[in-house]
Amino acid sequence: MPVLLEIYHDGNSQQKENTVRVFTNWGSNAVMAYSVLVEDLNSTNVGTADRAAQALVRIGPLAAAAIPRLTELIHDKNARLRVRAAQAIWRIGRQTNAVLPVMMSEMEHYSIVFQREHNLSKYPTKLYDHGNSIQQAAAEALGEIGPAASNAVPLLKVMLQSDSDDQKQAAADALKRIQSAP
């Protein structure tokens, strides 16, 4: 771990990204890197903050002290960072009330874009598209939340119509978990 932390601090951006991948793959064993990752949540570089949040998602409950900063990040202007921070909050502290609005908002944006792109809406222009991986992450988190995310069912059903097999699978998995008996 000391060597990885040195590479993380002193390496170029690719080396840092590779090091975060190692931390992420270690899951809760990466708790030794926790302070570095929390520090990076404060980075002005969205990619750096996103990678740190992604690693914290994998560390889980052992990263509880990061929740205040992650809570700030769920209001960031970058959708990927908002969703990643919300995922981390869910995995660390199971805070449904903090996470659910972020995930619902992202799924609502997806639904609007999808309907516009497929001429299912009276609004002909496309607002914005955050990319498949963000909606997949939101769907996965909604599935993890389970029945408490039941308001997301109509939005996940829209995602089932996606051209992306990965999105369809994420939506189907989430629906199964949400609609299962508690």
Fold and architecture overview:
The structure is a single chain. It is elongated and about 50 Å long. The chain has two domains: 1-94, Alpha Horseshoe (Leucine-rich Repeat Variant), CATH 1.25.10.10; 99-182, Leucine-rich Repeat Variant (Alpha Horseshoe), CATH 1.25.10. Mean pLDDT is 81; it is low at 121-130. It has 182 residues and is mainly α. The chain is built from ten helices and no strands.
Assigned CATH architecture of the largest domain: Alpha Horseshoe
Q: How is the main sheet built?
A: none
Percentage of residues assigned to helices? 55-70%
Task: Provide the gyration radius in Å.
Answer: 17 Å
- CATH fold-level label of the largest domain: Leucine-rich Repeat Variant
Overall morphology? elongated
> What is the strand tally?
0
User: pLDDT average, as an integer?
Assistant: 81
The ordered H/E elements are HHHHHHHHHH
The stretches of 5 or more residues where confidence is low (pLDDT under 50) are 121-130
- The tally of domains stands at 2
Structural class designation: mainly alpha
What's the end-to-end separation, in Å? 40 Å
